[in-house]
Amino acid sequence: MTALRPDLAIIACEVREAARVLDVGCGDGQLMAALRDTKNVDARGLELDARDVATAVSRGLSVIQGDADTDLAAYPDGSFDYAILSQTLQTTKRPDLVLDHLVRIGREAFVSFPNFAHWRIRFAHMFGGRMPITEQLPHRWYDSPNIHHVTIDDFRSFLHDRHIQIEGQWFLSGNKPRNERFANLLAQHAVFQLRRK
Amino acid sequence: MALRMQGDTRFGLDRKTRLLGPVKLDSGAEFAPVDFAYETYGELNADKSNAILICHALTGDQYVASTHPVTGKDGWWTRMVGPGKPIDPARHCVISINVMGSCMGSSGPASIDPSTGAAYAMGFPVITIPDMVRAQAILLDHLGIETLEAVVGGSMGGMQALSWAALYPERVKSAVVIASTARHSAQNIAFHEVGRQAIMADPRWNNGAYYGREAPSSGLAVARMAAHITYLSEAGLTEKFGRRLQNRDAKSFGFDADFQVESYLRYQGLSFVDRFDANSYLYITRAMDYFDLAEPHDGVLAKAFAGIKTRFCLISFDSDWLYPTAESRRIVHALNAAGAAASFVELSSPFGHDAFLLDAPEMNRIVDGFLRAGEQS
Description:
The complex is a heterodimer. Chain A is an alpha/beta fold. Chain A has helices at 6-14, 30-39, 50-58, 68-71, 95-105, 119-128, 152-161, 183-186, and strands spanning 20-24, 42-47, 62-65, 80-86, 106-114, 164-173, 176-178, 189-196. Chain A has one domain: Rossmann fold, CATH 3.40.50. Chain A has an 8-stranded mixed β-sheet with strand order 3-2-1-4-5-8-6-7, with helices on both faces. In chain A, β6 (164-173) and β7 form a beta hairpin. The radius of gyration of chain A is 16 Å and the shape is globular. The longest helix of chain B is centred in the middle third of the chain and has 16 residues, at 186-201. The radius of gyration of chain B is 21 Å and the shape is globular. Chain B folds into 2 domains: 2-184 and 292-376, Alpha/Beta hydrolase fold, catalytic domain (Rossmann fold), CATH 3.40.50; 187-286, Rna Polymerase Sigma Factor, Chain: A (Orthogonal Bundle), CATH 1.10.1740.110. Chain B is α/β, with parallel strands linked by helices. Chain B has helices spanning 2-5, 129-143, 156-167, 186-201, 217-231, 234-240, 260-273, 278-290, 301-304, 325-337, 361-376; strands at residues 15-19, 23-24, 30-31, 34-41, 51-55, 93-97, 148-154, 172-178, 311-317, 342-347. Chain A binds chain B through residues 42, 44, 50, 53-54, 56-66, 71, 74-76, 79, and chain B through 311, 313, 329, 332-334, 336-337, 339, 341-348, 362, 365-366, 368-370, 372-374, 376.
């Protein structure tokens, strides 16, 4: 098995044994397969890309081709122990509604996203005057799937407004964990564990 | 293992049996005795856990992967069923049963009513998709198969797979539902009504009493032509025929089949009447039109799957306008609401509804992975 992406490794580590998990934007099912194989998790997935869904299903995973923006409403409240949204929030049309669904469907939720306030991006903006193209955000302005960029501080403020409680938070620069100090400036990625108050 | 089944005449190619039944029908009537024409491929394993039921579509039959006795053509799903295919007789005991109401050996309007010695004709009871499934369950009891590893079907076969899971959830471990729907839409019913009216407008139909005389072939051919259009896509028809003329350089200014597409449809109609019974066409299209899995559950589809342990795999095709992706998605949403393990993919194909019968490597890859995962658990 190939090594999990660092944000997925954090989530995989935190998920309880034999939990029920919904992975929204599950790609080809890498995290789901890892959770199933190492923690006996009952995992379900939602993914937009047909090829990724086909690969995930052929791996024996239960994955549905669908859109986080339109297909989460059918899932009942609290039907999963965890709802996971990894590197997908910034690609949704209505991230606010997707997050509402996430903490409704999952008793807890994990959300990971690239931090748009990382100093490299700020630097590129300030001195380059152009939309930044970085290792974590390698797309050009016109072909980027990332349509709602968010910073760690934006996200925290949103959680506060929506009365969503932070149960845990992790920060990454490069592939390495880093502490919370100046995270909004220094972290490239963030992982939040959430619960509805 | 093979030894145990050798000599067991219940298994093999081209089987026929009559069982006492009765089948308890949705109409409230009971039907007995029940004739079954079916085939099996592969051996049932020691714990009888490798049986896969293949359900056929409206005009399909039990000859899934063996030569059709009337047309001499290969089975209709050799791309899915056979050595090295996702459903493999080396691994599975494959069962396919001609549905009740059809005309390839199972009880249908052309069968002889033992109480009169004449064909049932319109005296055959109006049946539903769940009735077909209840009949199949009686045959499986006879074969000693309690649990199915999977029920697999496309189109009307998918409706049967859904009904199997809803009626007998404890008997179905996995269900594969391809290019199908949980209900017939107004448009679906409308097209079927055109076909039925074409048959009944043929004077030879004679209120269904045409057995032993000339059959209403013209009506049945027109019904098939209309239906065949719904199995293809506009893009597929354009690519295959465009506005090209048939064996001529100019329009005839008459009503011959000037266009290739006309000639093709006429051929589809004519070749169909050799292998299908007009009354069966009426009964089976009726059963499909009556199909609405949510109806007995106050219109809430999720209730049909409440607490179900069956795993589901649904596949739709983007150019299928007969049972479009939205219908599969509706089933998926209901399965999600019921907490069932469900997978779903919309595949891309230019071939419309018929895509499930054609070469679709991605469909095979998905079905293979889905079935193998079920075998491990």
